[in-house]
Amino acid sequence: MRMTDIARLAGVSTSTVSRVFHGSPLVNEETAQRVRAVLNDSRYIPDGLARGLKSGITNIYGLVITDITNPFFPEIVKEFESIAAERSREIMLTNIDFHKNGMGDSVRRLLTWKVDGVAILTSNPDRRSMDDLTANSIPMATLDRRLLGPGLSDIAVDNLPGMIQGMAYLDNLGHKKIGYIGGLPGEAISKHRRGEFIHALKKQGFAVRSEYIKAGDFRISGGAAAIQELLVLNDPPTAIFTANDMTAIGALHAAQKMGYKVGEDISIIGLDDIAFAEMTTPALTTLRLSRPRMARAFFDALDYFGSRPSSIGQQYTVKTSLVIRDSTGPAKVKKNQRSSR
Amino acid sequence: MRMTDIARLAGVSTSTVSRVFHGSPLVNEETAQRVRAVLNDSRYIPDGLARGLKSGITNIYGLVITDITNPFFPEIVKEFESIAAERSREIMLTNIDFHKNGMGDSVRRLLTWKVDGVAILTSNPDRRSMDDLTANSIPMATLDRRLLGPGLSDIAVDNLPGMIQGMAYLDNLGHKKIGYIGGLPGEAISKHRRGEFIHALKKQGFAVRSEYIKAGDFRISGGAAAIQELLVLNDPPTAIFTANDMTAIGALHAAQKMGYKVGEDISIIGLDDIAFAEMTTPALTTLRLSRPRMARAFFDALDYFGSRPSSIGQQYTVKTSLVIRDSTGPAKVKKNQRSSR
DNA sequence: CTGAAAGCGCTTACAG
DNA sequence: CTGAAAGCGCTTACAG
């Protein structure tokens, strides 16, 4: 059923149907009611292609994801979709992992569909692709890049509140020697996050010991490798922060394999609070990054540009907070350490 | 840059540009080369809206997901997207969890965008929505419903091979008493899956004991509740199959809380092999359901309809296979049980 | 082998 | 307050 059919049935022009459909006040109430009746009876569904072609607005937002199987992302996607559905927006999903051309292909496809905005959920979006988007006046929202521009907003993660809570909590438990397993060495986000760790460490009056700070890769394997190096030190840390939950989970398992009781012999703190953080044994103490808030920020960021796609974007920030579970506990004074004095 | 501009630059009509762009052989090679040069130089990106409006083909596939945060789905979505990208198809994602109108809104939105097909990744798609899709000649592929029709294919999961392997494996380990924690009682898939369990049980010559078969809900909580009932029996099972990994993980944690050593005192077998199955402690023995194969089947199912959206669909089947990890081990003869004789 | 023309289903100035 | 008309950027018979 096309708008033309509705118009014929209601005895008006398509112009009027279109106005009624979009709730324009420029229509006589009686006429509007008649049209609405026909619209409902026929269960009219508009043609998004025609509407988009004519108006230049598709109400589609593109979502560029690094790797949807990383449990951090589905929760954001879900919330984002939920908000989008409420506002009659669509989501076009592109996963860029394993695509040889990086973001290039994704963006090309998104441009084909004239999306109204793109949420880029990767820490390393490539410059060329972003330029293509800018050239076509398509607004973007990025993750933790902290760079703004025309049609470009950013959603940053502020780990400091959670880190500071975590340090105070560890201090209470008697910990003094705090380690850190970071993200991939090359990435800006890794550097920033490590900075936050050091800042919180100092704030609590803990010593900054460079041998306690290792790089990871945001994955299970990196966490496992790094904690092995830390636990093998002569005077190892008694508690360890990590750059994300995957790293913490890797560290947790590796420590267990080495014979440590996590939460007793060694305390481990994650970051993100993915759903599986409470499924590990012991359940993971972590810094929660609210996924609903992230999703809301991304949506707001894109929505903000509305009809002015080239206005300067805004910086949004989402804070973390400490969630205490069982992978942390009182600092343990090792018996063999005492006896060796 | 529109096609009109390309035509002007190349000194031909838009008809010719269109033909060249789509690789039609009806164009003189010299002309084609000239057009291709302009196409490349200008980095022409077609307008999907205009193309779709005119041709009736969008190359967009809709994906209807129950809950993207259930780790079973992202892996399918990822593979599906990867195949789609290769074939220049788009994915429009709709998550139906928490949407009051169930699939209704999702389908309405998908109809607005004239998607070429819809993959429905939920065990309970509502009839009305499917009828709407059928009425609009939009092909569908469903998950484990085992019903075909015009424009309707199905991807079934065959758990028997994995179940049978699992039974033989348990038999070797000396187990005789095998329990099962199923899915949500109402759903057809739960009934089917339980049937497969019983079939495999008999095939291995194990006794079918109704008190060993409990319902779950495909979630952590259901698995936890059910295993508590099983372990409290006078003569409890020594090994337990589950309807999915989430159920198994819930069971694993609950058993541990009750003081059981999983893999020693009690063996637990999951189903799916989600990524986190190897992250539990102990790592989960499970029946793997290949997600790449599932995704491929869904894509093929939709692709199959091509230009005949109303032809009768096909039944696809994906088999499971046993993956042995640490949540299973030799059957234990309980000391107190022996002494109580 | 190539182009002029119609038309997909809408929206939106414009005229009345 | 309402409608006729143009046009968004393509594709596709049709004619030559």
How would the blueprint of this fold be written?
Two copies of one chain form a homodimer.
Chain A: H1 3-10, H2 14-21, H3 29-41, H4 48-55, E1 60-65, H5 72-86, E2 90-95, H6 103-112, E3 117-121, H7 127-135, E4 140-143, E5 152-158, H8 160-172, E6 178-181, H9 188-203, E7 213-214, H10 220-231, E8 239-242, H11 245-257, E9 267-272, E10 285-289, H12 291-305, E11 315-323, H13 335-339
Chain A binds a DNA duplex (16 and 16 nucleotides) through helix 2 and helix 4.
Entry keywords:
disordered C terminus, 11-stranded mixed sheet, alpha/beta, Rossmann fold, 434 Repressor (Amino-terminal Domain), homodimer, DNA-binding, elongated, 17% strand, 341 residues
Characterization of this structure:
- The structure is a homodimer of 341-residue chains.
- The first copy, chain A, is α/β, with parallel strands linked by helices and 341 residues long.
- Chain A has 3 domains: 3-46, Orthogonal Bundle (434 Repressor (Amino-terminal Domain)), CATH 1.10.260.40; 57-157 and 291-319, 3-Layer(aba) Sandwich (Rossmann fold), CATH 3.40.50.2300; 160-289 and 324-339, Response regulator (Rossmann fold), CATH 3.40.50.
- Chain A is 43% helix and 17% strand.
- Chain A is built from 13 helices and 11 strands.
- Chain A has helices at 3-10, 14-21, 29-41, 48-55, 72-86, 103-112, 127-135, 160-172, 188-203, 220-231, 245-257, 291-305, 335-339, and strands at residues 60-65, 90-95, 117-121, 140-143, 152-158, 178-181, 213-214, 239-242, 267-272, 285-289, 315-323.
- Chain A has an 11-stranded mixed beta sheet, sandwiched between helices.
- In chain A, strand 1, helix 5 and strand 2 form a beta-alpha-beta unit.
- In chain A, helix 1 crosses helix 3.
- The longest helix of chain A is centred in the middle third of the chain and has 16 residues, at 188-203.
- The radius of gyration of chain A is 26 Å and the shape is elongated.
- Chain A starts with a helix and ends with a helix.
- At the A-B interface, helix 4, helix 5, strand 2, helix 6 and helix 11 of A face helix 4, helix 5, strand 2, helix 6 and helix 11 of B.
- The structure holds a DNA duplex (16 and 16 nucleotides).
